[in-house]
């Protein structure tokens, strides 16, 4: 009896754990893959559409940057080992010297004048260290997370949004209504090409890396004798998370919540999973990239946490 109650208690947890494997059959299958340039392994900022942020990248052709000695966490300004060690020793030596009755410049400066010089020096060096190690902002290219930029379903187009980057990060770019319109069209067009198993159609809308992932999944479906069909895609809300430029390319990461019909059928068109009439909702973080002056293509998809 105790074992039976234990199994019954586990059923809800098992149902939740199995749900993504059964329901996430849309393009990319509910996984996180692709490249976001130099920001591939940095989490995009959370937004109102995806308040918990994005899941880490599971697959990417972008090699992670190897950490170097003295490196800090992503997004933090590196510290100067020489500056920190030298200035720290200078301050420490000066303070200890004053406590012992000897000046920092003992033998070169003396009396009250030397003491004043030491105090001024310690003050400015301490302020520099504070700003460098405690007061600095993270060096990332992050866009505004406040507000909801619903670039779908609004009577008036959203105002241009710039994905900000603090000092030292990739320069931000401005995202306007035409860009949001392209993002919506790509969302719908990619799902339609995916459903039609149209690799040529996908090739015009995604990077070669993303095309390889889609091709891999479509081949797997073909080997199992099934086909996933996503229809009636409706974008409900979208937030700009980041928009920046690097190495001659421009990137924009947006969180999107959309509804759709998601059904998997076999070769006889019998439903294997999902429903052709009931809508399901998904929240994903899509990153688009373009060459300067070119058109946007999909370069990564991440699941919302």
Explain this structure to me?
The protein has helices at about 1-25, 80-100, 110-135, 175-195, 200-205, 210-225, and strands at about 35, 160, 175, 225-245, 250-265, 270-290, 295-305. It has about 300 residues and is α+β, with helices and mostly antiparallel strands. It folds into two domains: about 30-60 and about 140-305, Nuclear Transport Factor 2, Chain: A (Roll), CATH 3.10.450.240; about 80-135. The protein has a five-stranded antiparallel sheet with strand order 1-7-6-5-4. Strand 5 (about 250-265) and strand 6 (about 270-290) form a beta hairpin. Helix 2 (about 80-100) packs antiparallel against helix 3 (about 110-135).
What's the SSE blueprint?
Blueprint: H1 2-23, E1 33-34, H2 81-99, H3 111-133, E2 161-162, E3 174-175, H4 177-195, H5 199-203, H6 208-224, E4 226-246, E5 249-266, E6 271-291, E7 297-303
Antiparallel strand pairs: 1-7, 2-3, 4-5, 5-6, 6-7
Brief description of this entry?
The chain has 6 helices and 7 strands.
In total, how many beta strands? Answer: 7
Strand order of the largest sheet: 1-7-6-5-4
Low-confidence region ranges: 3-23, 67-93, 132-149, 152-167
CATH arch. level architecture of the largest domain: Roll
Note the gap between the termini.
37 Å
Shape: elongated
Number of domain modules: 2
Structural class: alpha+beta
Largest sheet: number of strands, sense, barrel closure = 5 strands, antiparallel
